[in-house]
Structures are given as structure tokens and as C-alpha cells.
């Protein structure tokens, strides 16, 4: 992955990560997810990443939408 991407959110809930990614994208903030889970056991984390240039906008979106 390019060094231009930065993590804005981490969760173990794949659905929550996908919902956040969709919300960011719909708000004009391109986002991707990286799933680092062991599929059989659902361990570890899923990261939501955005461009470094969009980091502040993404954090504002997360705070405004009360995403935990």
C-alpha cells in the first residue's frame, strides 16, 4: 500500500469497518479497508485507511457521526 495512506479507524467488526468506509466514500473521502483477521477465528483487526491529505476530514466525519 502506498505511503500516502494513513489509518483512521481500527475495529474487529468487519461490518462496522465497511459501513465507515462507505460513509467516508459517500462524504467524498476515498477510503479502503485492510482486513488483518484470521478468517476462521475473527481475531486481530480491520483498519480503515484514508489519504494523508484527507486525514483531518475523516476524523471530523468520525467524530460528527459518533463512530466508536
Structure description:
The chain is of the alpha+beta class. Helices cover 34% and strands 26% of the residues. The longest helix has 13 residues, at 14-26. The termini are far apart. 21% of the residues are buried. The model has no long low-confidence stretch (mean pLDDT 88).
How would the blueprint of this fold be written?
Layout: E1 5-11, H1 14-26, E2 31-35, E3 46-51, H2 55-64
Antiparallel strand pairs: 1-3, 2-3
Kindly state the percentage of residues in helix. Answer: 25-40%
CA radius of gyration: 12 Å
Number of helices: 2
Structural class: alpha+beta
**Sheet with the most strands, sense and barrel status:** 3 strands, antiparallel
Number of strands: 3
Distance between the termini: 25 Å
Proportion of beta-strand residues: 25-35%
Offer a concise description of the structure.
It contains 2 helices and 3 strands. It is of the alpha+beta class and 68 residues long. The mean pLDDT is 88.
Keywords:
68 residues, alpha+beta, 3-stranded antiparallel beta sheet, 2 helices, globular
